[in-house]
Amino acid sequence: MIPREIIDEIVYRNEIDQVIGSYVTLKRAGSNYNGLCPFHNEKTPSFTVFPATKSFYCFGCGAGGDVISFIMREENLDYVGAVEHLAARAGISIPVEDAPREEGMIPRKRIYEINLAAARFFRECLMDERYGKEALEYLTEKRRLSTATIRRFGLGFAPNDWNRLTYYLKNLGFSEEEIIRGFLGKRSEKSGKVFDLFRNRVIFPVIDTTGNIVAFGGRVMDDSKPKYLNTSDTPAFKKSRHLFALNFARRQAEERMLLCEGYMDVIALHAAGFENAVATLGTAITSEQARIFAKYTKQVVICYDSDTAGQTAANKAMRLLGDVGVDVRVLTLEGAKDPDEYIKKYGSDAFRRVLDGSMTGFDFRLKNILAEYNLALPDEKIKASASVCDMISDSPSEVERDICVRKAAERMKVSVDAMKADVERIRKNRIRQQKRKEGQDAQLSLKNIGDRVNPDAAKNIRANRAEETLLGLMLIYEEFRREATSESAEIRAEHFVTDFGRRVFSVICELERSELGFSKAMLGQYFNADELGRIEKIELERRNLARNDRAVFLGAIEAIRKESEVVTEEDPFADLRRKQAQNKQAKENKNT
To answer: Considering the entire predicted model, what is its pTM?
Structure first.
């Protein structure tokens, strides 16, 4: 348990605009700051930081909260992990008291520790002739990696044994549950014993930008399947939010980064002097990884394999990287299927020349589209033109569309004006469809339909509106919190109709009644990131209203009580269900 006064000091020392400014390019807008949201793809800023209230909110995706909840989202940390991260940033030491954890819960720090131990085991096995001779020959002779490169990337070997790693880790004091949750072992359904997941594979540790080993990739040395085995999501790792070798590449990536398909391509490029290379972790690039690129570089060169699967993956990567404003280029290799093979055949200088001549994303897609059609046939040319126009219409820049239209028209020998007209027609149709969808979404939003944070709101629109009014006032004004939590208050948790509103009210009351009083910084202990965003929205909307006086406060209480009576009359078991929910929440709060 982290003491409340320590958390307040951590929030005080970590100015929210400075912390967020280290992740997002912020521009001053009056007393606030605006920027592109790091949590969803956008080209027009909808993300706002409010220094006065030490909070942030994205009007596009609904992410919001304080500096702690921002770090929870951005660094994929739980509440305690985010607080510890900010404490380290501010140079604050945390006196941590022992506290009971939920059954089966493994701390992130413990996963780091078990991964470090496993990495040492794999490295020792690689260097041990009894186990790693074949693997070491594979890396040094077939892959031509130097000992220095092997050590730099911490490469290792998992012996062909069912429980050697498990036995090693248990002797160090790690439990079977920790081994399983760290994706290093699995329990047999037949015998009930834990066995090693990584066996007879070369091991590639995945290291985050702070130096922690968060995951492993294992590659076979022959043609057996599966070729790669990668760590699944753990308390310390989510594969969609990490990039292999980013811990090295981020130092060389200001102007350009190279995106590869596999670990070996990245290691070969680093060994050849291209230390700005990274790879995704066994999956196609995600929107979260695209935003990581946008944080570190201006341009990404996609260095995928030249086969069909590689080219399909390149198309997806171009779209996602383009969505976050990164300049995208595509590497085309003649005489080799991937960068590793090309460098072995032709050398580093030849690869650098090919890299400097990489194709723009548009040229790459245009080439692929035109290769599918026989432009000598009128019907084929019409189909090709339709595909090209559809692709060009994706660009939000009128200048870029004009340049692309002229280039495509010249290649296809068609009228520039005709192609431009087709592009604009497609864009107008898309805009109409988008506006229609936005209108439908707005109607559903007004009725709270599809609300995953507060699903009860759709069935109780009036009650939810009154609850949000009261909660907004309590979040902003201390006097309303005191009045609502006093013994004589006319409002209780059982009067709330929506489960989410009831939980927020209960937590605010609990914190207000505590020795040090209410603090928004403590909310992350009770709510997840999406719920914190909704709480921030409730407060923000209330702040923007002209009337926030006591009459509004009392009116909200009266409306909540009235709606509660209506719901109880309609459902005679509502009170019982409500008490069961309260007991469940009280138990969860106690565990927290």
So the answer is: 0.70
